[in-house]
Amino acid sequence: MWKEAQAAQGARARATLNEAIAAGGGWLSFERFMDLALYAPGAGYYSGGTRKFGTGGDFTTAPEISSLFGRCVALQCAEVLSALPGGGSILELGAGSGRLALDILARLEELGQLPEHYWILEVSAELRQRQRALLHDRLPRVSSRVAWLDRPPEVPFEGIVLANEVLDALPVKRFRWFADGVQELGVGIEDGQFTWAARPANSGMDQECRRLCAAGGGWDEGYVSEYCPRMPAWTRVVTQPLRKGAALWFDYGLPRAQYYLPERHDGTLACHYRHRVGNDPFDHVGLQDITAWVDFTRLAEASREADFTLAGFTTQVHFLAGLGIDKEMHLAAADDQNAFARLANQARQLMLPGEMGERFKAMAWLRGLELPLSGFGLLDLRHSL
Ligand SMILES: C[S@@+](CC[C@H](N)C(=O)[O-])C[C@H]1O[C@@H](n2cnc3c(N)ncnc32)[C@H](O)[C@@H]1O
Q1: Which ligand 1 atom is nearest residue 124's CA?
Q2: What is the spatial distance between Cα 60 and Cα 150, in angstroms, rounded to a whole number?
Q3: For 103, what's the count of Cα atoms within 13 Å in the CB-facing half-sphere?
Q4: Helices 325-333 and 337-351 meet at what angle, rounded to 10?
Q5: How remote is the C-alpha of 5 from its chain's centroid?
Q6: Architecture of domain 62-170+235-263+291-384
Q7: Of the residues 35, 36, 38, 46, which should be mutated to test ligand 1's pocket, given the most ligand atoms within 8 Å of the CB?
Q8: pTM of this structure
Q9: What pLDDT, in 10s, does the model give residues 94-140?
Q10: CA 65 to CA 347: how far, in whole Å?
């Protein structure tokens, strides 16, 4: 039954993309392809009913690995909320299984610092249901504060906007560099299969690529990569109602100069299907997640455009250590040695440089507030942006 549903969703996604390619005269920009493959109503990966998380799903995120992640994020939220006279609310973007919301709310409840509202902006109907069920089952006392939104709150609020592993799912443009003429890589159809198809880039893309090439230190002919033009507008819109407070972004990525190094000549696309990572977005269309690393310099630039100050940029390992993950481990284990050993193992996964510790970064923006943030106090990498 499940297999049939999957096959039907894959078929719907392919049909939607075939139509879009035909409507474009045989060519579709990769940005639009990614948009439809992930978000086309009823057919895209996030709009459809695939499992996504956990066993039988496609990927695992930091909150799925350990509650320690959410506990530390909660401590960072508590610092911000206590700097706001009326407390404040939290808006989480793309809440996945609801695990991060659960861990944040549970820890804030222990601290006596629950937000007035915990809003979740989620595009996937299936994930909304899972979030609702998880919060209702595990934290019924608090679930009246949680509400799901289709768009950012209409009324201005004070508090926090946060997102873990959402920016990497924003559609990107893909290009191939030639010094005398950049190409935009789009998607065509050959023998019934999706295939890369190049076109001369327009002047906007050409200029953007020259800027990125200079930042990366120069590229060989044929260098392929991508960038996310919609990130500034998207982050501006979702943070727009925040009158005072912080935006916290967690994701895998790099400052621009490292992202666009000459040796990274095939870009950073990563596709997740049943816990396998590939780099072919034409595999398992509609059934796999398609992501690209985050250019954190672009995100830093977006903070200024959105009228925030860039308050911190660091690695996940330093963020968690700065908030006292070791102390959280002891508190969460509550003298149970087996629980402590399990948590220590999870902490290693979150913090080891070869695992998530350094690939993942945290960035903080502040608006209308000035305060030191413990998660960003141990290592300040803003100079690298
Ligand atoms: C990789 S998952 C991360 C989930 C969760 N934050 C976590 O860390 O486990 C991406 C999440 O973002 C949601 N999402 C993707 N694009 C989005 C968008 N444009 N707006 C809101 N949510 C989005 C997905 O449905 C999913 O819940």
Answers
A1: 25
A2: 25
A3: 22
A4: 150
A5: 27
A6: 3-Layer(aba) Sandwich (3.40)
A7: 46
A8: 0.95
A9: 999 999 999 999 999 999 999 999 999 999 888 999 999 999 999 99
A10: 9
